[in-house]
Amino acid sequence: MKKLFASLLLTGVFAFSQFNAVAQDEVSSDSTAVVDSAAVEEVVAEPEPVAPMMEEVVDEPEQSFHQIVKEQFIAGGWEFMGIVLLCLIFGLAVAIERIITLNLATTNTKKLLANVENALASGGVEAAKEVCKNTKGPVASIFTQGLMRMSEGVEMVEKSIIAYGSVEMGKLERGMVWISLFISLAPMLGFMGTVIGMIGAFDAIAAAGDVSPALVADGIKIALLTTVGGLIVAVILQLFYNYLISKIDSLVNSMEDASITLVDILVKHNLSK
């Protein structure tokens, strides 16, 4: 019995020792496999070259014309840019008023002369006066003044037409001097703002003690914006001024031609009596 127990004990110790050796071998093999796999992974997992990232180009929203003008106006300084803007506003106001007035003063002279001639033939001078009084425009006003002197003779009619024609020309040219003033004033104010801006830029250079390109460039840019604003205002108002001058010349020529034709009609009417 003791021999059987001793043999079983020896068998168990031997089996345990064998199992422990096998387990150690498996662990060592597993650790070796893990080390080998880690080494392989280290070899395989080399750091891949990072491709240079493309800089994303962000499209900035385009600024509208109104925003650009607003920014440049503020950059130029409100002191002189505001005065230049007032010149533009007042000049445009006078120009628009003149355009409306001159367009209303335009008269169909051929139709008016035909109506006056028919009135003289049918109702005499008084009927012709009524036709002229009921017609708007400087031509009709000149005709009215001439017909009022009909009793004094054709020569007096002609003198009255010439004299009153000068008065109507003065009315047509009223306000043009203000547009001319603003055309001259806007660039001068712009140049004044430029000179003052340059003085400020040189003062900044003197205070900094160094001529910085950025400092000089910013000062010159701000100084020149007032000149640009004044020139733009002058160009805009000059276009309106030239249009108004051409319109006035057209009306004056129309008045002169119609006046000559009226005198001829009156001479013909006197001869036909």
UniProtKB/TrEMBL annotation:
Q: Name all MotA/TolQ/ExbB proton channel domain ranges.
A: 136-256
Is this entry keyworded Transmembrane? yes
| Record's subcellular location | Cell membrane; Membrane
Q: How does it sit in the membrane?
A: Multi-pass membrane protein
Q: Which residues form the signal peptide?
A: 1-23
* Keywords assigned by UniProt, alphabetized: Cell membrane, Membrane, Protein transport, Signal, Transmembrane, Transmembrane helix, Transport
Which InterPro entries does its entry note? ExbB/TolQ_transport, MotA_ExbB_proton_chnl
* One protein family per Pfam: MotA_ExbB
- Asked if the record carries the keyword Transport, the reply is yes
Bilayer-crossing residues are: 80-100, 177-202, 222-245
Give the family this protein belongs to, as stated in its UniProt record: Belongs to the exbB/tolQ family.
Q: What is this protein called?
A: MotA/TolQ/ExbB proton channel family protein
User: What organism, scientifically named, is this protein from?
Assistant: Imperialibacter roseus
